[in-house]
TrEMBL record:
This is Transposase. Residues 1-45 form the Transposase putative helix-turn-helix domain. InterPro entries: Cas12f1-like_TNB, RNA-guided_DNA_endo/Transpos, Transposase, Transposase_put_HTH. The keyword RNA-binding does not apply. Residues 166-278 form the Probable transposase IS891/IS1136/IS1341 domain. Residues 289-353 form the Cas12f1-like TNB domain. Keywords: DNA recombination, DNA-binding, Metal-binding, Transposition, Zinc. In the C-terminal section; belongs to the transposase 35 family. Pfam families: Cas12f1-like_TNB (PF07282), HTH_OrfB_IS605 (PF12323), OrfB_IS605 (PF01385). NCBIfam families: guided_TnpB (NF040570), IS200/IS605 family accessory protein TnpB-like domain (TIGR01766).
Length: 367
């Protein structure tokens, strides 16, 4: 099992210059190796392999000594990346599709340096020791599980990150004998059938305000202007912040569910409802729910546990105690049934979701 962590880097100006220079050099290498392949394929009808191209790297360094300043494995990864692009291309040709030939990387398009054999010694407390670049300040905001295998330095929206891929041994199966239904909502992010409430959607509000502010800024500023470009950059960052917060939350909740329950039931999300034009908050909530279900599903898989998606029809209207339908509007926060059962509406829904997953039908007591 591989888990990838993303940490922010705080490079010095020197680091940035070296990283940018290396990215440019690697982009150039990618393009010239691509040229070589195109030539071989189009003019002579054969395809070069990764190995054939990688063995040329030492002579390239002799011809262009500047390449000596880039870590050799990083250069090999450039050749490998090109090889992946070609393998993907040939797979599609084989399937009878008409894919475009792998493309040249434009200026600034090449945005990552891959260190395929990460060593624990790369992690020096608050610094990441990057071969041929130096010790870069790294913000490790969460504990890594497993053994680091690959480190990728990546530029995104003018910032720099380290993506660390760790190998994790799946934990042994520990059945808890417990099952849970989870209702995903717009008031609370998630409510479980065991009466557990996860944060209110308000956690998104500040991020949404930022996004809207920068969107206004972008539309107000003159097209092609430097100030507009700046605003576009800030808008992208605001989106990224919301996405990160949403992802962290999905990681936390999914972990806590999978650790405690053998069976976790959610409602099947309504795909149709999502295509339409919806307010931003709904769009982000949809994405957050999706992510929670995805994360829970893959974590459950490693842990030998189960996720079930049930039919969402009427989960908020049905009484989880007697099965009677209790009509309510979105603003009715309480489920109050003639059978005497009175409960938070989302908690009632979570119980219905669990019942559907385990095939339990409540008995109609009074009628
Ligand atoms: Zn009832």
């Amino acid at each position: 099992m591989i888990r990838t962590y993303k940490f922010k880097l705080v490079p010095t100006i020197d680091h940035i210059q070296t990283i940018e220079w290396s990215l440019n050099m690697c982009g150039w290498l990618y393009n010239s190796m691509l040229e070589q392949r195109r030539f071989a394929y189009k003019r002579r009808g054969f395809s070069l392999s990764y190995h054939q191209q990688a063995t040329e790297l030492p002579s390239l360094k002799k011809e262009l000594p500047a390449f000596k300043q880039i870590y050799s494995q990083v250069l090999q990864q450039v050749v490998k990346r090109l090889d992946w692009a070609f393998q993907h291309f040939f797979r599609r040709v084989k399937r009878g599709e008409k894919p475009g030939f792998p493309r040249f990387q434009g200026k600034n398009r090449f945005d990552s340096l891959i260190y395929p054999q990460a060593k624990p010694s790369m992690f020096q407390g608050k610094f990441l020791r990057v071969p041929k670049i130096g010790d870069i300040r790294i913000k490790i905001h969460r504990q890594m599980e497993g053994i680091p295998k690959t480190v990728t330095i990546k530029r995104k929206n003018g910032r720099y990150y380290a993506m660390v891929a760790c190998k994790i041994e799946p934990p042994p199966k520990k059945p808890s004998g417990k099952q849970v239904g989870v209702d995903l909502g717009v008031k609370h992010f998630a409510v479980t059938s065991d009466n557990e409430f996860f944060p209110a959607m308000r956690f998104l509000e500040k991020g949404l305000r930022d996004i809207k502010r920068w969107q206004r800024m972008v539309s107000r500023r003159k097209e092609g202007s430097h100030r507009r470009r700046k605003a576009v950059e800030w808008l992208a960052r605001a989106h990224e912040r919301v996405a990160n917060r949403r992802k962290d939350l999905a990681h936390k909740i999914s972990r806590s569910l999978v650790d405690r329950y053998d069976l976790i039931a959610f409602e099947k999300l309504n795909i149709k409802g999502m295509v339409k034009n919806r307010p931003l908050v709904k769009k982000i909530a949809d994405a957050a729910w999706r992510q929670l279900i995805d994360f829970t599903t893959y974590k459950a898989e490693w842990a030998g546990k189960e996720v079930k998606l049930v039919d969402p029809h009427n989960t908020s209207q049905d009484c989880s105690q007697c099965g009677r339908i209790v009509k309510k509007d979105l603003c009715d926060r309480v489920h109050s049934c003639r059978c005497g059962y009175r409960e938070d509406r989302d908690l009632n829904a979570a119980r219905n979701i669990l019942h559907r997953a385990i095939g339990f039908v409540p008995e109609n007591k009074v009628n």
